[in-house]
Amino acid sequence: MTYDMEQEPLLSPKKTLADVNTDVCKPMERWPSKSWFVVFSISVALTLFGLGLFIYQLRTGMGVWGLNNPVGWGIDITNFVFWIGIGHAGTLISAILFLFRQKWRTSINRSAEAMTIFAVMTAGLFPIIHLGRNWLFFWLMPYPNTRGSLWVNFRSPLLWDVFAVSTYFTISLVFWYLGLVPDFASIRDRAKNKIRKFVYGLLALGWQGKQSHWNHYEIAYLILAGLSTPLVLSVHSIVSFDFATSVLPGWHTTIFPPYFVAGAIFSGFAMVVTLLVIIRKVFQLEDYITMVHLENMNKIILATGLMVGYAYGSEFFTAWYSGNIYEMFTFKNRALGPYAWAYWTMITCNVVAPQLFWFRRFRRSIPVMFVISLIINIGMWFERFTIIVTSLHRDFLPASWDMYIPRWVDWGYTLFSFGFFFTFFLLFCRFFPTIAMSEVKSTMHVGRKTPETEEFVF
Amino acid sequence: MDHGQKHHRLLGIVGLFKDPYHLLKAAKETQTRNFKHCDAYTPFPIHGLDAILGQKRSALPWVTLVLGLAGCFGGFGLEIFTSAMAWPINVGGKPFNSFPAFVPIGFECTILLGGLATVAAMFMFCRLPNFHAPVLDEKITDNLFALYVPAKEEGFQENDVKALMEKAGAVEVRMIG
Predict the structure, then answer these.
(1) Does any domain span residue B1?
(2) Where are the alpha helices (DSSP H) in A400-443?
(3) pTM, to two decimals
(4) What is the DSSP string of A220-263?
(5) How many domains would you assign to chain A?
(6) What is the CATH number for A410?
(7) Quick one: CA torsion of A411, A416, A417, A423, rounded to 10 degrees?
(8) Would the CB atoms of B19 and A214 count as touching at under 8 Å?
């Protein structure tokens, strides 16, 4: 019996080096389609709607939210954690898979990194929206001031968040730009239009592809990957510290950092699948983002989904095993209390749905993976909602219990967050190469058979 | 301007190749002649080419190390200075110098400064941005691989280099100057 151990080609074998630039740049060199304008208009409208909400909130006060005394964190912080989590898949693909020499990452890292940057931008708005006096947001930074100088409280996890999220955004942006430089040079060199040549020429900074430059470039890329790896793990760990360092039952657990990181990668990969299934179809990039890439991502979704499921079980076990009545009550309340619908939505979406990916047929089916990725996005949003709201709404004293009912403003901001994200993402799809061209070219031989007559073939 | 002279001053010879294999062949050939200033222009990094061309490993990691450490000490220093020295405030009975609580921000500062310095140093080492350098060929950022031998090399002979490129399989050999 023989086993076929040959590697499946990463890219469609009929593609040549020259095809990469042509195919990836094609969407940037034609006028946007009607459907692009429709989706873009909706996104911009939602963004403007959010701006309107913010003006309403500034004029009226924080009372426009459905938040109340026990539930001081609601959908605002849910959205913050949700969007930060989305970002993590991009860094996992660009940095961690790079360190592990996973060559399949090259077709998907550019758009995943773009997703990271826009998701972190979206997330970063929510703590600012959530502030009581939003206009004083810069008080979060430590700088000499006329109030003393009164410094920020470095012992607070909320301040750790400020540093973690802003560092994460800065480093991700720089990493993304570094990867874009050779591709901007490609666009500059193939540009027929003078303005296009000038703009992309500026962005490319005069990159020429010199070997002596590639030497520095590759080391810089490797170091940034090495720095981003602990960074991405630290960011969601620190986000989880916002909860874990409190004394509230259901929040005060040591499992939170790995649980949050696994959940972040899980939701982020689901979002990458959602976006890439659309991109490869709309921009005809099926030869570059192939079934191999999609199946690999679905495998990661399955693995991280199992980790998340394990964390859900472990939380319950620890609550029971600890013998702590408050902890046990919180978990019973999650599964059977007034927010049981949110809890069971979370379990169904995050634990049950991804199990389909055990089967190769479903891992390689576009409709199945698209639907499951959407389901997981919904499930992961509800995970954050469940963690935040069910722990807050019933704590130690029954006298202080209350329900959190999101108002239209809360939901409106959620809609806005999607509009804001997609506004940037759609612009990215039009103006930037959605696939890292220079990186894809370096992997074109992977899994391909070399004809015997030729010594080296691309 | 002396136009007659300009025509004869050769700056270097560039060979254009269709794939990395033939480029590497030519690069190895230049090495046998002890050329020290050759450089290649490629659409993506070709591993091993740096060694063949005799280029040294980048010194970037040292920049990262030094600036990363600076970020680390700077971050912790800021936290300790503000929380324990400039205006000590009792927060929940914690010590003024709450070192374990300072670790996350100290770490983030390390990464931030180390990462930014790495990229800045990379552009500095490459002397970028540089918008005036002539583009050898517009196909280099697409699918063309070029090897450039400057005329200043010791033992540079026009015909020899030309033959070398052609023998290695260059699709075109151009005189630059």
Answers:
(1) no
(2) 408-431, 437-441
(3) 0.93
(4) HHHHHHHHHHHHHHHHHHHHHHHHHTS--TTT--TTHHHHHHHH
(5) 1
(6) 1.20.1630.10
(7) 160
(8) no
In the predicted structure, residue A453 carries a pLDDT above the cut 70: no
Residue B98 in any domain: the answer is yes
Tell me the β-bridge partners of B40: B147
Q: For A170-197, what is the mean pLDDT?
A: 94
Chain A 325-354, CB below 8 Å of chain B: which residues?
A: none
Over the stretch A43-100, which tens digit does the pLDDT of each residue have? 999 999 999 999 999 999 999 999 998 999 999 999 999 999 999 989 999 999 999 9
| A/B interface, count of CB pairs below 8 Å | 203
> What is the residue-wise DSSP string for chain B?
--HHHHHH---EEEEEESSHHHHHHHHHHHHHTT--S-EEE-SSPPTTHHHHTTPPPPSHHHHHHHHHHHHHHHHHHHHHIIIIIIS---STT--SS-HHHHHHHHHHHHHHHHHHHHHHHHHHHTT---S-SPPS-TTTTTT-EEEEEETTSTT--HHHHHHHHHHHT-SEEEEE-
pLDDT (tens digit, 9 = 90+) per residue, B88-146? Answer: 989 889 999 999 999 999 999 999 999 999 999 999 999 989 888 888 888 999 989 99
Q: Would you say A120 and A421 are in contact if contact means Cβ atoms under 8 Å apart? A: no
Range of the domain at B23: 13-43+144-177
What DSSP designation does A134 have?
A: G
A17 touches chain B (CB under 8 A): yes
Cβ–Cβ below 8 Å for B111 and A178 = no
Instruction: Return d(Cα B85, Cα A346) in angstroms, integer.
Output: 47
- Concatenating the DSSP letter of every residue in A303-337 gives HHHHHHHHHHHHHHHHHHHH--HHHHHHHHHHHHS
In a domain, A446, yes or no: no
Phi, psi of A301 (to 5 degrees): -60, -45
**What is the percent of chain A with per-residue pLDDT over 90, rounded to a whole number?**
83
Omega before residue A400 within 30° of 0, cis = no
Give residue A449's pLDDT. Answer: 62
Same domain, B151 and B99: no
Residue A10 belongs to some domain of the structure: no
CA dist A177 and A203 (Å) reads: 9
- The Cα–Cα gap between B167 and A363 comes to 49
Instruction: Identify residue A343 by its one-letter amino acid code.
Output: Y
Indicate if the pLDDT at residue A1 is higher than 60. Answer: no
CA torsion, ordered A194, A114, A117, A419, to nearest 10 deg: 90
Residue B83: name the closest of A312, A156, A234, A322 by CA.
A156
Residues of A in contact with B109 (CB under 8 A): 163, 167
In this structure, the answer to whether residues B105 and B148 fall within a common structural domain is: no
Residues 44-73 of chain B whose Cβ lies under 8 A from any Cβ of chain A: 44-46, 49-50, 53, 55, 57-58, 60-61, 64, 68
pLDDT over threshold 80, residue A334: yes
Beta-ladder partners of B12: B150, B176
- The reported pLDDT for the residue numbered B2 is 45
Number of independent structural domains in chain B: 2
